[in-house]
Amino acid sequence: MSFGDPNNPYGQPPQQPQAGPGYGYPQQTPPPPGVPPQQGYGYPGYPGYPGATMMAPQSMPGLLVTARVFLFIISAVQILAGVAWLYVAAFVNDVTDAADDLSTSSDSPFGTIGEGGDIAAGGLMFLALIALGLAALSITLGVKFGRGGQGIRITTVVYGALGTIVGLLGLFVGLDSGMATAVIFPLLWVAFGAVITAAPVVPSGTAWFARPRY
How far apart are CA 191 and CA 93, in angstroms? Predict the structure, then answer.
C-alpha cells in the first residue's frame, strides 16, 4: 500500500502550500527575544509607538494662563508708577527752575533748593524709566507665552524670582512698620511673583515651552 497514491482513501493527505505574505503591507521581521512586538503603523506620538502618551499639550496649562494674567496686571502697575514718577519729576524740575530764578547769590537758600531739586528730579526720572522698562518686559513675556521657547521660560523664572525677592523685602519693611496697609501690597507682589516663578517650572509648564513648533 502506497501512501503516495492520491486515490488511496487511507493515505496521508497532501501537504498544502504555505501562504505567502499578503500584498499591501511590508513584511516584518520577528523581534529579538525579550522585546515585545510593536503593533500598528504611524508616527511617534500616535498609538502603536512607545511614548504615545507623551504628546505635547494642545492648550496652555491653567497655571501658565494665571501667570500670564499676573504679568499683564504687574505691567499695568508698573506703567502707572512710571507715569506718576515722570509727573513728579517734571513737577520737581519746575520747582527747581523757579528756585533758581529766585536765587540772587550762591549763599541764597533758593540756590540750595535748586541743587537738591535737580538731584531729586534726576532720581525720579531714573526710577520712571526703570518702571516703564520693566513694564515692557512684563508685557513681552506675557505675549510670548504663546509661541516662546526655553529662552522665554528661563527669563520668566528669573524675573518672577527677582520680583518675589523684592516683594519679600517690602513685606518685611511693612511688617516692621506695624501698618496693615504697608503689608497688603508687598504680600500681593510676593504671591504674584511666586506664581510667575512656579508656572514655567512645573511639569505642565515645562512641557508647554518644550513642545514642538511648526
Answer: 37
Cell 505635547 sits on residue: 56
Q: Per the confidence metrics, is the pTM higher than 0.90?
A: no
Q: Say if CB 208 and CB 61 are below 8 A apart.
A: yes
Q: Rounded to an integer, what distance in angstroms lies between the CA atom of residue 67 and that of residue 54?
A: 24
Tens of pLDDT, residues 129-172: 999 999 999 999 999 998 888 999 999 999 999 999 999 999 99
